[in-house]
Fold this protein.
Amino acid sequence: MKTLLHCCCGPCTAGSLPAFLERGREVTGWYFNPNIHPYKEFTARRDSFIQYMQAVNCEYLVENEYPLEDWLLVQAPLAKERQARCGNCYRLRLEPAAQKAAELGYDAFSTTLLVSPYQDHQLLIEVGQEMALRYGVSFDYIDLRPGFRDGQNQAREMGLYMQKYCGCIYSEKERYVKKKKKAAE
Ligand code: SF4
């Protein structure tokens, strides 16, 4: 099966790719992440993805378009509703992934977001299945979470950039606010 794998960064790709290859998938990684702010962070994660894919000699595509403004316009009304905002964020990435997989003739699409214990795994499955139906390609679901730690360790060994927050400006704020709250407690 040929799978277009939406990739959010190098470390998550390192934790995810082996599970697809072990199952005999032909994988192309695809970097598309308008939710990663600011621009320098977007490029740091993109470059860590490229570095990893080149090191393991796997085919990849990069979407350099960075529609930050479109992402913010859609997400601003949901700024204070984390679950709705994250669900929408999954849609804003998995819909283009499913669409691209269909356009390029892949059998399926999937996402490295499934490796993270910090993401809403069930919601990701629901959005993936919704997009699969909409674009007539399979959602290649694998519970990738068992590979998370290995991916992080491999990324550190390779000297890949390791991010400190989920991606958007809201999550960047939460990173510091949570720390402050903990310190105050
Ligand atoms: S916290 Fe992460 S998943 Fe949620 S909206 Fe921000 S970047 Fe997207």
In short: Helices lie at 10-22, 39-55, 68-75, 82-104, 121-135, 148-158, 169-184. The chain is about 55% helix and 10% strand. Residues 35, 85-86, 89, 166-168, 170-171 surround iron/sulfur cluster (CB under 6 Å).
